[in-house]
Amino acid sequence: MQRKVALPPNDSIKEILKTIPKLPGIYIMKDKAGEILYIGKAKSLYSRVRSYFTESRDHAPRTRIFVRKVADIKVLTTKTEQEALILESNFVKKHQPRYNVMLKDDKHYPYLRLTTQETYPRLEVVRRVKKDGATYFGPYTMVREVRETIRLIYKIFPLRQSSDELDGNAKRRPCLNYHMKRCLAPCAGLVSPEDYARVVNDVILFLKGKNSELLDSLKAKMADASEGQRYEEAAVFRDKIDAVNTVLDKQRIISTSMENQDIVACYTEAKATMVQVLIVRNGKMLAEKLFKMNNPEEEPDAETLASFLKQYYADETLFPSEILVSHDLEDRELIEDWLSEKRQARVKIEIPQRGKKRQLVQMAEENARFAMRAELDKGDVATRSLEELRETLGLKNFPKTIEGFDISNIGGTHAVGSMVYFHNAKAEKSKYRRFKIKTVDGIDDYAMLTEVMTRRYARLLDENKPLPDLILIDGGKGHLSTGYRVLQSLELEERIDLACIAKGKFRTNLDTDEVFLVGRKDSVSFKENSPSRFLLQRVRDEAHRFAIDYHRSLRGKNALKSPLQDIPGIGKKRHLLLLKTFGSLENIKHASLEDLQQLPGVTAPLAKKIKDAVNV
Which of 55, 113, 127, 151 holds its CA 20 to 30 A away from the CA of 43? Predict the structure, then answer.
């Protein structure tokens, strides 16, 4: 038997409930600290908000939890329920309340923008669709997919690739693309807007997937060129026809009705929901998107899908005429009206029960289920690799957290240390740390490692922060002994496990890498294709990459640094004055002491320091 929700004893809530209007709008529930717990919309705020605080057997577990925490309620009224829906979507996206079902992977996918508002349109990749008069195509799931499409278009159609503003007047001589017959040279004024528009029309047909019409157009042009005995021109059209046919062979026709559809299905498990979106345009499957939603209370699929659609389509401007979903939705008619108004044409949401449309939804459901299993299996693989690592190395601790170290220096200059952080076998880059070596001169990796590790773990001890379970050092037995002495000096040798990984006989072959432990002469033996061994190599490689990046950064900054900046008495203004007066460091180098002393504030001793600095 479910627990009933009684009205909270908080008198302020009772007073708030009395003042709530009987109008459409959104309600914002907060806890004692002012944190937003939940945001919802209602046709009647008065009825909807009061329903949370009346005894009922129908409240979901999540609702029973957050209602007990409510200390304040704010409302915003709107003229219509549809306005409330839009306002709710915007507020949920902005504030991300704990008890709303949230879209985690809110990505902006790439689109192709054809600037048809210009006299001579061009193509570009964008992430946002605007009402600017241009024509947009997409979305595409990967930039690589977009780049390949553009490459193919430039191969088939002589569309300009420059980004100049063109008005038909010549701006320059034709470029190489013109001579390769891949551009009509509008920048050189060699093509009329009418002739160029015919090319643009073919590009639009291609991007809209209307390749049958495009093929008919190209075949007609090829026949015309052939009849006029313009055989080279006919051959160009023949090659374009072949390229379009190749694209057609790769496209999968899944609907003979040539509809524009989004197919949306979800699968919930382990307090998360995977939502699969299949994008069908003109009956062809163009792309698919996968989203993960935070669903802590495993809310019903109807509510989850409604939350997804409101968040997913909030920023979209290109809509299909039909959306097929796997479950019925809360406020389905309201969401339809909202999307129809945004599209300025009818958008229908359908829950198909049979036939071809039902098969499409089942395909999306199966993909969502498969994606969820893959996501959960990732966690299982991580756990198995960590369990194997503990067993193979004989560790005292389960290696839930691993910190990896590397030292980078060339000729002893700009020496740095890096530390990377892995939690449950996954890198957490926000916890990476880098160290500029402060106490070691020259080349001494062991002394540098001592400094870095001492600084790291002395600080963790001082701040009473958690220690890692395992430390991995990029290096050999000498590095391992150095690391162990650091742990001994901080009395941590019994609390943290330690290992090192070294390049083996063949440095470019990962199979010869060797892992060493304290007190063990020989390297550790791993099973073939061991996931735990791969994990250690990944930690090592990431620490090395992070150290090298920092080292290069410091070298780059030093290359841009002027020797004048290190001279006491030379500030920013005097530094600029020297360069402005003499023009360059080379001229300062050849200037006399007397010349330098002509500048305000430059004494004889300071002039000598300047000469010494630039002559190093």
Answer: 55
pLDDT tens string 240-279: 787 766 655 544 444 445 578 899 998 887 677 888 888 8
Please measure the distance between the N-terminal and C-terminal CA atoms of the chain and give it in whole angstroms. 86
Under 8 Å between Cβ of 304 and 312? no
Separation of alpha carbons 98 and 80, rounded Å:
26
Give yes or no for a contact between 73 and 49, defined as CB atoms under 8 angstroms apart.
yes
Residues with Cβ < 8 Å from 145, sequence gap 6 or more? 287
Of the candidates 558, 560, 538, 555, the residue with the CA atom closest to the CA atom of residue 409: 555
* Mean of per-residue pLDDT scores for the chain: 81
426-446 pLDDT, tens digit per residue, is 889 889 998 888 888 777 889
CA distance 455 to 353: 64
Q: What are the angstrom distances between the C-alpha of 147 and each of 110, 114, 126, 572, 593?
A: 10, 14, 12, 46, 60
> How far is it, in rounded angstroms, from Cα 588 to Cα 595?
9
Q: How far apart are CA 26 and CA 78, in angstroms?
A: 8
Amino acid at 6: A
Helices (H) and strands (E) in the chain, counts: 19, 19
Structure tokens at 441: 């001169």
> Phi/psi zone of residue 245: left (φ > 0), alpha (ψ -120 to 50 degrees), beta?
alpha
pLDDT tens-digit profile of 163-173? 888 877 888 88
Q: Whole-angstrom Cα distance, residue 176 to residue 164? A: 16
CB 367 within 8 A of CB 276: yes
Q: Which of 343, 347, 135 is CA-nearest to residue 262?
A: 347
CA distance 107 to 85: 21
pLDDT at 546: 87
pLDDT digits (tens, 9 = 90+) for 583-601: 777 788 788 888 888 888 8
Please report the pLDDT score of residue 27 as a whole number.
Answer: 92
Q: Is 173 helix (H, G, I), strand (E, B) or coil?
A: coil
Strands (E), 401-558: 401-410, 413-423, 426-427, 433-436, 470-474, 497-502, 514-517
List the alpha helices (DSSP H) in 164-230: 176-179, 193-207, 211-227
Segment 182-188 mean pLDDT: 87
Q: How far apart are CA 553 and CA 548, in angstroms?
A: 8
